[in-house]
Amino acid sequence: MQDFDFEQFFQAETGLKLKKDVALSDYSSFKIGGLARYFIEVTSTDQLIKAVSAVSSRRFPFYLIGGGYNLLFDDIGFNGLIIRNKALAINFHPEQGLLEIDSGSDLQQVVRFAISKGLKGLEFLAGIPGTVGGAIYGNAGAFGQSIGEKVSEVLIFSRDRRLITLKQSELGFGYRFSNLKKDHQVVLKVFLAVEPGDKSEIERQVKDYLEQRERKHPPRSVACAGSYFKNPVLPDGQKVAAGLLLEKSGARGMQVGGAAVFHGHCNFIINLGGATARDVKELAHRLQEMVHQNFGLWLEEEVIFVPADASML
Ligand SMILES: Cc1cc2nc3c(=O)[nH]c(=O)nc-3n(C[C@H](O)[C@H](O)[C@H](O)COP(=O)(O)OP(=O)(O)OC[C@H]3O[C@@H](n4cnc5c(N)ncnc54)[C@H](O)[C@@H]3O)c2cc1C
């Protein structure tokens, strides 16, 4: 399809104006990535549906991103349309004890909303960067809890462009896993269960979690995408900290080009400035081999690599 045709078609279908040749490094906390051929930011569920409908009706490659906190973009960019989700509405349904949240809402916005209404149950999300859609995709969590446990249902825009409601049990939540990882569909809205609670107790718990995170995680100024590897699960079901395996294997201080193992926690690969996706992947591979040699375990990436020719179609 000619560039001009696609731009015209997309604008006619959606009323939205595309950007071209957008630096993906500006949309990933890793600060890595080439140019997206096309880029659009949507600010409502309606716009998200229109954008996905338009590209999928023409089978034009697209990839949906939230905050970009768990992504490693390709050095050569993305050869299709990147849709950035900023649909932000949150509503509380007291009779059902549910928050109805647009998938582009920031998790911290959700935590603040819950505090303002004196609703408990979501405190563990404090400090996890990203959108609710991204959190559902990877079942984000901390302090022994994950978002999947709080899901009542999720509204999906399916590959064949239908609105479908999926119940918690249909989403197959596991450790940093949901069925969306097998069948990449678009999450439009998420319904999370909350309970009335004591506002000052909720605030205290949130503050405590944020302080604990500050001690463990790299400061915000450090470019990374969170824990690079998942914690491996042994055959007896026991989870082992990937950071510890890496540290014991001698990962501290390792570096490839601009990518390095964070000195404070070996499961964070950081961009020292000028790192490429190639540097990160090469360093990650060396780390996997070291841990395999020492412990016979192959670490699986938690960070998601987005190749230039990826597509959610
Ligand atoms: C400093 C730091 C600390 C972190 N700490 C934690 C932590 O404690 N716990 C944890 O679990 N994670 C943590 N992470 C990782 C990250 O915050 C989570 O993975 C988060 O859920 C990513 O959300 P996002 O909106 O940025 O998703 P993105 O990175 O933009 O996308 C991730 C994936 O989700 C998909 N996706 C996004 N939105 C949708 C949607 N609406 N529908 C369908 N698919 C969608 C994307 O296509 C992509 O495949 C951390 C990251 C950083 C940088």
Short description:
This protein is of the alpha+beta class and 313 residues long. The protein is built from seven helices and 19 strands.
Structural class: alpha+beta
The percent range for helix content is 25-40%
Q: What top-tier CATH class of the largest domain fits best?
A: Alpha Beta
Unique bound compounds: flavin-adenine dinucleotide
N-end to C-end Cα span: 16 Å
Number of helices: 7
Number of strands: 19
Q: Which sequence of SSEs, written as H and E, runs from N to C? A: HEEHEEEEEHEHEEEEEEHEHEEEHE
- Give the C-alpha Rg: 20 Å
Low-pLDDT runs: none
Q: Mean pLDDT, rounded to whole units?
A: 96
Report what the structure shows.
This protein is α+β, with helices and mostly antiparallel strands. The chain has 3 domains: 83 residues, Uridine Diphospho-n-acetylenolpyruvylglucosamine Reductase, domain 2 (2-Layer Sandwich); 127 residues, Uridine Diphospho-n-acetylenolpyruvylglucosamine Reductase, domain 3, CATH 3.30.465; 84 residues, UDP-N-acetylenolpyruvoylglucosamine reductase, C-terminal domain (Uridine Diphospho-n-acetylenolpyruvylglucosamine Reductase, domain 1, Alpha-Beta Complex). The chain is built from 7 helices and 19 strands. The protein has a 5-stranded antiparallel β-sheet. The protein has a 4-stranded mixed β-sheet with strand order 1-2-5-3, covered by helices on one side. The protein has a 4-stranded antiparallel β-sheet with strand order 15-18-17-16. Helix 1 crosses helix 2 and helix 3 runs antiparallel to helix 5. The chain is globular, with a radius of gyration of 20 Å. The site of flavin-adenine dinucleotide (FAD) has 31 residues, from strand 3, helix 4, strand 9 and strand 13. The site of flavin-adenine dinucleotide has 31 residues, from strand 3, helix 4, strand 9 and strand 13.
